[in-house]
Amino acid sequence: MPAIFRFRRATPFLFAALLGLAACTEQHDWRSINAADGSYSVMMPAKPSTVTRPVNVNGKEYSMTMTAADVQQVTFAVGVIHVPEPGMAAVTMTAMKDALLKNIGSVPANEKIRSTAQVGSISIEVDTVGKASGGARGEPRVLHGRFIAKGTTVYQVVVAGPENAVIDTVVETFLTSFKAN
To answer: Model's pTM, two decimal places?
Structure first.
């Protein structure tokens, strides 16, 4: 049989296979984001939106600026709070982490505390699974986060979503791209 006929017979199968592969591919449109105040840079997998709102952390009112993007039910977010004194940053960071874990009904499954004195910061890394409160039909929610206290700034860098939608390599790309300035 001539090669052209074999190709024509195989074309519908190739097209179906490519269409199936395209349907399984994540739609990430990575872009570099710099905070308006210059406090950080990060790669976001989609065009983010930014909001600033008051939050209560340990009984104190702060203004939190949150930049976030959603891709296929997974949220990629960076939250920033400026505290009045450097000594308050670590306590605020821990309280932010605890509140977020409580929101998804979890305790950390894997928590690492990393102190980086050479750059004057401390960070906590969390990987955990919890239940969504009031949403997502009670599906398990995965949270991967880094909480960083540097000077008078506290950063919350998180990826959260349904357990079956969160992809480890995408999480790693997002979290490792974050740079506190």
So the answer is: 0.79
